[in-house]
Amino acid sequence: MITLTDNAAAAVKSALSQAKGPAEGLRIMVEAGGCAGFKYMMGLETATRDGDAVIESGGVKVFVDQASQAHVAGMTVDFITGLESSGFVFENPNASNKCSCGKSFG
Fold first, then answer.
1. Whole-angstrom Cα distance, residue 42 to residue 90?
2. SS3 content of the chain, % helix, strand, coil (to 5)
3. CA separation (Å) from 25 to 29, 47, 56?
């Protein structure tokens, strides 16, 4: 369903190791909003919720709520570092368009 590149998995593992509380993995959600219609939301997750799909990718558990699953099926998440910015990049085959920042899609 979702694939994390080696860079993305390493970034999540680093965040998990520095978490102040217990964390099991990464939650990826899609919410209405952003400049293209939908936006990605991410955060560390402590437990599975009802309806979640739990995917293991790169040694990291990725939690996806039921409402978001169709929006992210087949998506690849990368983590890039650059001089001007660093962060997660989403390659989503379900997105018909996306904003210039790459954090929102339609």
1. 12
2. 20, 40, 40
3. 13, 8, 9
Delineate the domains of the chain, giving CATH numbers in brackets. 2-105 (2.60.300.12)
Work out whether the CA dihedral 59, 15, 44, 20 comes out positive or negative.
positive
Picking from 23, 26, 24, the residue whose alpha carbon sits closest to that of residue 9 is 26
Tens of pLDDT, residue by residue, the chain (106 residues): 899 999 999 999 999 999 998 999 999 999 987 666 788 899 999 999 999 999 999 999 999 999 999 999 999 999 999 888 889 989 989 877 666 555 556 6
Q: How far apart are CA 96 and CA 34, in angstroms?
A: 14
The CA distance from 60 to 34, in Å, is 27
Hey, what amino acid is at 30?
V
